[in-house]
Amino acid sequence: xxxxxxxxxxxxxxxxxxxxxxxxxxxxxxxxxxxxxxxxxxxxxxxxxxxxxxxxxxxxxxxxxxxxxxxxxxxxxxxxxxxxxxxxxxxxxxxxxxxxxxxxxxxxxxxxxxxxxxxxxxxxxxxxxxxxxxxxxxxxxxxxxxxxxxxxxxxxxxxxxxxxxxxxxxxxxxxxxxxxxxxxxxxxxxxxxxxxxxxxxxxxxxxxxxxxxxxxxxxxxxxxxxxxxxxxxxxxxxxxxxxxxxxxxxxxxxxxxxxxxxxxxxxxxxxxxxxxxxxxxxxxxxxxxxxxxxxxxxxxxxxxxxxxxxxxxxxxxxxxxxxxxx
Length: 326
Fold this sequence. Notes:
Elements: H1 25-38, H2 46-60, H3 69-88, E1 95-101, E2 104-108, E3 113-116, H4 134-142, E4 145-147, H5 158-166, E5 170-174, E6 186-188, E7 193-196, E8 199-207, H6 211-214, E9 217-224, E10 230-233, E11 251-253, H7 265-274, E12 280-281, E13 292-293, E14 296-297, H8 300-307, E15 322-325
Parallel strand pairs: 3-4, 4-5, 5-6, 10-11, 11-12, 13-14
Antiparallel strand pairs: 1-2, 1-15, 2-3, 7-8, 8-9, 9-10
Helix pairs in contact: 1-2, 1-3, 3-4, 4-5
């Protein structure tokens, strides 16, 4: 076994050996990483991508994999690759979307780069991975703006926010939560129509899925980018209750699994499509490791199985993967 006992300086728990740390696990994950680079979303061999998804689920659906040093190293490799692309690539048309972790995405247009709910995993409850110091610094430098839907640690990274503000970049969060965030965070009033660094933004009040008796303050974001692409990010809003937008978005990024205490996933997707068909759906909140298997940590297999039944185009982006929409 891999007896890597690296102490996590950003969280209370040390890493310990898990099923993912068996001999050969790291080599298999390195192979998955290379296969994903060679078979990118939308252009790669779908059979190879399905195999990568299956193998990753075998690791990520294990109960204590959130404490695996091998999985942490795989995540760092994936995000480091994504950061290189974000920093290097020039977007000529549309928007390119990179998945970072959980429901966090970076968007790059011909003029700007912004994020929604981007986290590094350093401060997520029950994860707290000791990722290299350059990751939050590079993410902060790459993004002009970051929008935050609510103040849960798998959606809001206070260290990353502070890094962005130190660089005079913009961070916007719900006005009701503004005091919780580092000084300099801009408070967005729900319902307001604003232009932030050439992005036209509407935030609307949301209904959080479970916590605190569904009283967690959260919002959704509808954003029209400077390149004219309309993006809608639901955060943890229960869209089985309602979903309001000016018009169906080009890119919809809904939470998948655990959306509503009233309905199973199959019914949730049926309800989602009643609001109107998006141009592309990128489901989020998949394999969030702070949650437990069958208790909020939904698998990529489940997401693929559900969305394969739909006629709406979709892309499931794994950690660090990017997709150009134009």
